[in-house]
Design a protein that fits this description.
heterodimer, A: alpha+beta, Ubiquitin-like (UB roll), Alpha-Beta Plaits, 3-stranded antiparallel β-sheet, 6 helices, 10 strands, B: 475 residues, alpha+beta, 5-stranded antiparallel β-sheet, 15 helices, globular, binds iron/sulfur cluster, binds FE2/S2 (inorganic) cluster
Chain lengths: 240, 475
């Protein structure tokens, strides 16, 4: 595999051909915030929080789906990017009903952590307060659509790690939402193996173990990566 | 000419409470009312949420007593899971409730009420607040603050303070006390006890000066309700409900919380959106009852700890069977602080407090559950109905301030009747006393913790045509 050299934030970096900017940056110890990216499954560039500036390209590009090129000049931390990232976070908060104080994932939520990191002390957009239901028909797990950011991680984990194909997205635009099988109560799903991978994949409190109380639901993404590495590389190593 | 006087405390959270005084044509007080914005919104808000979230959600109802809602909610959850929680969990919940009683009562007494008591109700408002107290008796003020802190520290040691997690959960609690935490409590206990005793002695010494207030501040016959232990001892978290009348006769006893609706009716008056609970067998409004420290001491036979029991006997001598003056809520509160401290002293060496067997796990085994706990201000009931998946279908909360609603109205009328005569200007001292009358109940309102210890009051005397005949603003 040929190596490509590029600069990220002024730092000279070499990366394998085919690597994403996100992977290259990670290797070089340059942090780029992500939400829909999940180690172990392919990227879809859904959330846009990982946007970076690339010299010579007018639009912003998602680091998770942009491949490295020879001589590429990438900037990950500019005023413009910080503004956009904050805006994206605010839009995510305004879109559904996030009440961190009583959320099962309070203190363990990637969305909340990013909001803190980006100094999001208020939301400039009007909250939409949509009416979404909960699905707590599954014996072990629950889904609260109010907290879903449609990152699709659960869907990819369910299809490509577990291979059950239970989780899907239905609807378009603001009505897009996660469903089980053919849009039936999760508890009635015939394909679901109750493995809980979707729950571990979820960055927010949208998917949770039933009975979890405020702040009690920590997701274990490392577990998913462990499974994938074990399967693909035959290496049973726990990641950090 | 009939007049209406509206006292509207404009607090940091607007529209929380106001007092209206209704005068007849001759300028006599017909009625006075205390209005509270209630928690109906919260009950609606809970619908559709999973049971596990309820302690966390309801703890947010009130910034002043989150612990009480947490505990009542967790107990309602225990009922729905149909489990008996591990003994350690019960002891830890009790420890937290005792701490809550200490911190809340200390706030009520030292920060809010002691300035009235020390400087008198006619002292200038500028002096009659916690800052006046700090200026004139810095030692008392400091000790009061530390006593409250002691209660708060225990709550933090158990529940953590950063994000107010739902520490008590359906089935038990999430974490035990740490050994360092236990040590800390043990070290702080003696000072807390000394402060509590000093405050009690101070109050008893002042009592002679407040004969008029004892007579006037809500002194009337009513029923009293609180939890009691199976043997009739003081309770704050377990036990069952008991009602006594103003002569101290037990009229209903050992009522399981699940039967509360047989005994408590909830009237909604057309003039107010506040629910007014009453003792159902007597009907409305004859079934007026009081809850809180005064009620708890009236319903119990003994407390079960040495100093508190001595004090209880002396306290009971202020009534025949039951102590009926609402002014003596203050007195009862101070005795309860001692009861709580002595109870903690007694339990603090129990190894169960450090145990990790804390949570009974179970699914949804009942579709309905009622949880009851004694909040500092009185009995608090959470009643949930859930569906098979554990989703809340209906929530009914009976809060202590609501249960004292009828009694607070009657207290307002009693004070107003005494101080307002004719249509002349309302004396400033009357405002102070109305305010102090409310404060005796320590109602759970943001205004009751107003930093200056004084409610900003807005008084409007309205002519029958609605025009403002007289206006007094303070605050
Ligand atoms: S529990 Fe497993 S099988 Fe079921 S939806 Fe989630 S990932 Fe798919
Ligand atoms: S449920 Fe969670 S993982 Fe699935 S799309 Fe929503 S936020 Fe992402
Ligand atoms: S992490 Fe790259 S678009 Fe979501």
């Amino acid at each position: 595999m040929a190596a490509k050299t590029l600069t990220i934030d002024g730092k000279q970096i070499s990366a394998f051909e085919g690597a994403t900017v996100l992977q290259a940056a990670e290797e070089a110890g340059i942090p780029i915030p992500t939400l829909c990216h999940l180690d172990g499954v392919y990227d879809i560039g859904a959330c846009r929080i990982c946007l970076v500036e690339v010299e010579g390209v007018a639009k912003l590009l998602p680091a998770c789906t942009t491949r490295v090129r020879e001589g590429m000049e990438v900037r990950t931390d500019t005023e413009r990017l910080r503004n956009y990232r904050r805006m994206i976070l605010e839009l995510l908060f305004a879109e559904r009903n996030h009440v961190c104080a009583v959320c099962v994932s309070n203190g363990h939520c990637e969305l909340q952590t990013l909001a803190y990191e980006h100094g999001m002390d208020h939301v400039r957009y009007e909250y939409r307060f949509p009416k979404w239901d909960l699905d707590v028909t599954h014996r072990l797990y629950g889904m609260d659509h109010n907290r879903c950011i449609l990152c699709n991680r659960c869907v990819r984990a369910c299809w490509h790690i577990e291979g059950a194909g239970t989780k899907n997205v239905a609807g378009r635009g603001a009505r897009a939402h996660i469903i089980s099988d053919l849009n039936q109560p999760w508890g009635d799903s015939e394909s679901c193996t109750s493995c809980g991978k979707c729950v571990d994949a979820c960055p927010t409190g949208a998917l949770f173990k039933k009975g979890a109380t405020a702040g009690e639901m920590a997701h274990n993404r490392a577990k998913l990566e462990f499974i994938v590495t074990a399967r693909e590389k035959k290496q049973w190593i726990a990641s950090e | 000419m009939a007049q209406r006087i509206v006292i509207d405390p404009v607090t940091r959270i607007e529209g929380h409470a106001k007092i209206t005084v209704q005068l007849d044509d001759g300028g006599n007080v017909i009625d006075a009312r205390f209005h509270v914005t209630e928690f109906r919104g919260f009950e609606k808000f809970c619908e559709g949420r999973p049971l596990g979230e309820m302690p966390g959600i309801t703890a947010r109802i009130c910034g002043i007593c989150p612990v009480s809602h947490l505990l009542a909610s967790a107990k309602a959850g225990d009922e729905i899971l149909a489990v008996e929680i591990p003994p350690a969990a019960d002891k830890l919940r009790r420890l937290m409730n005792l701490a809550q009683i200490i911190q809340s009562h200390a706030l009520s007494f030292f920060h809010l009420s002691s300035p009235d008591l020390l400087f008198g109700f006619d002292a200038p408002p500028a002096k009659r607040n916690v800052f006046g107290l700090i200026a004139s008796d810095p030692d008392l003020a400091r000790r009061g603050i530390r006593l409250r802190q002691f209660g708060q520290e225990i709550i933090e040691l158990l529940g953590g303070k950063k994000i107010h997690p739902a520490w008590a959960v359906p089935g038990g609690v999430r974490s035990p006390l740490s050994e360092e935490g236990r040590k800390h409590i043990v070290e702080r206990l003696p000072e807390a006890k000394q402060t509590a005793l000093a405050a009690l002695n101070l109050f008893k010494g002042l009592l002679g000066k407040f004969e008029a207030e004892t007579q006037l501040f809500g002194n009337f016959p009513s029923l009293f309700m609180a939890l009691v232990a199976p043997d009739g001892s003081w309770e704050h978290h377990g036990g069952k409900l008991r009602f006594v009348d103003s002569s101290g006769n037990i009229i209903a006893d050992q009522i399981d919380a699940s039967r509360y609706r047989e005994f408590i009716g909830e009237a909604v008056e057309p003039s107010s959106y506040l629910k007014s609970p009453y003792y159902r067998p007597l009907g409305y409004p004859q079934g007026i009852y009081r809850v809180g420290p005064l009620a708890r001491l009236n319903v119990c036979r003994r407390i079960g700890t040495p100093i508190a029991d001595q004090e209880l006997a002396e306290f009971k001598s202020h009534g025949t069977g039951a102590v009926t003056s609402s002014f003596l809520y203050h007195y009862a509160r101070l005795i309860e602080i001692i009861a709580a401290i002595e109870t903690i002293e007694r339990m603090i060496d129990d190894p169960d407090l450090l145990s990790h067997r804390l949570r009974a796990n179970a699914g949804i085994n009942r579709l309905e559950g009622v949880g009851v706990s004694e909040a500092p201000r009185g009995t608090l009931l959470h009643h949930y109905e859930v569906d098979e998946t554990g989703t809340i279908r209906k929530a009914n909360l009976i809060v202590s301030t609501g249960q004292n609603n009828l009694a607070m109205n009657r207290t307002m009328s009693q004070i107003a009747r005494h101080y307002i005569r004719g249509t002349g200007p309302v004396p400033e001292g009357m405002l102070n006393r109305l305010e102090a009358g409310i404060r005796a109940f320590d109602p759970c309102l943001s205004c009751s913790t107003h930093a200056a210890g004084q409610m900003p009051l807005h008084v409007q005397v309205l002519a029958p045509d609605g025009s403002v005949a007289q206006e007094i603003t303070r605050g």
